[in-house]
Amino acid sequence: MNENDLLILNFEEVRRRSIKVWKAIPKEMLNWKPDDKAFTCGEMIRHVIEGEFLYHQILIQRGSAALSDIPNPYETKEFSTVEEELVFAKPYREDFLCFVRALSKSDLESVRIDRSDVGYVRTLGDMLLRIAYHESVHTGQLLDYMRTMGVERPNIWD
Hints:
This is DinB family protein. Residues 11-142 form the DinB-like domain. By secondary structure, this protein is mainly α. 60% of the residues lie in helices and 5% in strands. The protein contains five helices and two strands; from the N terminus they run H-H-H-H-E-E-H. Strands 1-2 form a two-stranded antiparallel sheet.
C-alpha cells in the first residue's frame, strides 16, 4: 500500500463509520441538540459533509483564500434526510477522493496549505489527516448526543 491508498482507506473507513452513526439517528431526532449553542444532529451531519467540500477547495487552491472565490452548493440547500445529504454530496465526495488519489508523495510532503487566517500553515499530507480527524471528532460527538438522547448507538468498531 502506498500513501494514497492509506489515505483513501482512512477516508472511506471514517465515512463508513460516520454513515452508520448518521443513519442510526431517528429522523425525529435530527433536530435535537444538547443546548442552545450546539449544532443539531442534522446540522452536524451537514457541517461534516459541507466541510469536506470546503476543505477540498482549500486544498486545490492551497489556502483559505479559496473560500472567498467559490460558490458553495450547500449554502442554499436545506437539510432534509441523511440519505438525501449523501446523494447530494456524492459527486463532491468522488471529486475529493479523485484529488487524493492523484497526489504524489512529493505533493503530500512539499505542498503547503496556508490557513494562517485560522492560525496555521501545514503540508498537504497533514491537512488530509486533519480532514479525516475533523469528521471523526464530530462522529464521536454524535455518539455522545445519542447517549444523551437515550438512542441505541451502532457499533462502529466492527
